[in-house]
Amino acid sequence: MKWKYFILLIISSPFVRSQVPDSINIDQRFEQQIEGISEKALTNNDYSEIAENLDYLKSDKINLNSATAYELKQLSFLNVFQINNFINYRNRNGELYSIYELNSIQGFDEKTVRSIMQFVKIEAIAEEEWQLRGIKKTLKYGSNKIITRFQTQFQTPKGYISSNDSSEAKYQGSKHKLYTKYLFNSSEKLRFGITLENDAGEQFGWEHSKTGFDFSSFHIEFKNLSIFDKLIIGDYNLQFGQGLTIWSSFSTGKSSDATNIIKLGRGVTPFSGTNENIFFRGISATISFNNFHISPFISYNLIDGGVNMINPEEYNTYESGLHRTINEIERKNSLTKTDFGINTDYDLKNAKIGITLINTKFDQIIAKGDRNYQYFNFNDNESTSIAAHYLWSHNSVILSGEHSTNVNGAWATLHNISVNAIPEFSFLISYRNYQNDYFSAINSPFSEFSTSGEKGYYFGVNSELHKYLKISAYIDIFEKTWLQYQKDAPTKGYESLMQFDSYINYTSSAYFRIKYEKKSRNLFSETNFINQLKDETKLNLRLQFNKLINSNFSISSRAEYVHYTHKKNENGWLIYQNIKYNLPDLPLSFFSRIAFFDTEGWNSRIYAYENDVLYIFTVPAYYDKGIKYYLGVKYELNKNFSFWTRIAHIKYENLTSIGSGDNQITGNQKTEIKVQMRIKF
Predict the structure, then answer these.
(1) Does residue 620 carry a pLDDT above 70?
(2) Other beta carbons less than 10 A from residue 552's beta carbon
(3) pTM of the model
(4) Which of 193, 513, 520, 581 could, after both became Cys, cross-link 542 (CB 3.0–4.6 A)?
(5) Helices (H) and strands (E) in the chain — how many of each?
(6) Rounded Cα gap, residues 203 and 37, in angstroms
């Protein structure tokens, strides 16, 4: 009955009669980007800065008459062609007078214009510089925001329970996760914020830290202050070039938007996330002299590390940011990391060229590991890199790239060519070559495996076959030039995707996706002393419908199938139904999902984006056999007070425990709850 009901629901949902024409979910393309990144990630990613930035832009909109390409890239659903076409249009025609002028720009269809309307504005350009003597007025008329969140689960994992041989639990704190943030903004002149977070299992209280929370972050940003375009004191991110040398914040990768892999770095930006070991702490700035833009920076940060057991004179680094057990607490802030450098950009008529220099120094030698695949890992306490990057556009052609070199001679290079010759067709070709011993402490270039020891060619195409039908496709052919975990020889492989998007009308859309991956992995055998590589393939088929029934009610349905092959073949499927509903006469809205899934193992797991409280992106892996449902509620008392809560429950049919190690839960069910409040004043 479950299958019959959901097949009927999926087939019928896009054809439900619409009452009030409006736009469908504007974040669908971004959700697909997040899903793609989560599938590749080895650890949980923090996407909160992306959501916070979009929410920030709702109140402090981008002025289209003065925005640079790098500012427009904050809207991740705009690709490089759309941004380039917009800049060219503005250069030819001068300032815009109406948002609807965008409809006449190549690449800006009605759906795209509706998507960006809440984040942009049209205003005359006004050069305004402020001085510190006007800070009282700035503080008086600025906006304030406080966000606080509580998160917990009903079941108790093993790490919180005392064992027979110990009177104390391994995790030193409670199973509750706490988060608090304060933000101030004043008309793009002054911005500062404080972030406090305590992960589940971490100790909380003044006796453990100065703020009571395990992690704390602070930043203050001045804009157009004296000679500074930007001046940031405290915690900050850096984005330069194509991410080969420095890139410390969110970075897109392969997705259904096949030509949207080119990076447009925003330079120095405030850090307001919770990735505890991947940011800079100190002072950064941007100063402009005519066409020159200079961004110096210096950072002194404490990161997690521990003595290497094989060589006590070296240290291991840890990026999880978790400090729950005695060992994890001992590793906290035990390594000192110092960074300093500069980025210089020069604007030409149709191009931007730049040079980046960074020196990174640790107070201990970093251990590379004793496994064969770790042979080329960084094994020193200091690294210096210099890079050249460029972005050139002419009519429908865009060239971009970066070449970075370590002082030891190791290098990495990445180059892209994008062509949008006609409105209905665009393509991109990318080449990358990262040497085995290339090293950067914080970077995020386009890649399949990692930022070293990789070669690859990427081809992406977007085509509008019809007004209501678009196709996007890519193939990424890659080679790992050294060993990897569970891969005892260099390997080759490829990943391909083809997606058909149908825009039935303003309120209905659907897409069908085929994705295929082929790689190699060790085939373990008790009879062979040497592991042999065997092809590892994965085929995903996905069908999704989205429907806005009226201005208050929308639904989306998805069915996905996966087939995995290696030593053992696995199959899996997932079907879900999403519902969003706003009460027309009350400040209440609801979002919910029910999902059924059945996979034959972890290798056939399926990732799916879930709606959550504001600033949270959740992309869990559905695996084994079971059912999951969640219900979220948003209550807006007025424009200054908002409240969210979300409860999610999952039940597995074949499991007697969930998770592993200290996170293991006895039983086959897990229930989580989140409560969040936002106050503006």
Answers:
(1) yes
(2) 15
(3) 0.90
(4) 513
(5) 8, 34
(6) 31
Mean pLDDT of 337-363: 96
In whole angstroms, give the CA distance from residue 650 to residue 668.
Answer: 8
Instruction: Give, rounded to a whole angstrom, the gap between the first and last alpha carbons of the chain.
Output: 51
pLDDT at 24 over 50: no
Q: If you average pLDDT over residues 167-184, what whole number do you get?
A: 92
Closest alpha carbon to 214 in 328, 307, 306? 328
Residue 485 CB: number of other CB atoms within 10 A?
A: 11
Rounded Cα distance between 677 and 325, Å, is 30
Q: 251 falls in which pLDDT band (50, 70, 90)?
A: confident
How many beta carbons lie within 10 A of that of residue 343, not counting itself?
A: 27
Q: What are phi and psi of 348, to 5 degrees?
A: -105, -175
How are beta strands 625-638 and 508-523 bridged, if at all?
A: unpaired
Paired strand residues for 649? 629, 671
User: What CA–CA distance (Å, rounded) separates 666 from 18?
Assistant: 46
Long-range contacts of residues 454-458, Cβ cutoff 8 Å, at least 24 apart: 454/478, 454/479, 454/480, 454/481, 455/479, 455/481, 456/430, 456/431, 456/432, 457/429, 457/430, 457/431, 458/254, 458/261, 458/428, 458/429, 458/430, 458/431, 458/432
Joined tokens for residue 95 = 């300032």
Amino acid found at 413? T
Which is nearest to 259 in space by CA: 387, 426, 34, 440?
426
Does position 459 have pLDDT exceeding 50, yes or no?
yes
Residue type present at position 196:
L
Q: Helix, strand or coil for residue 603? A: helix
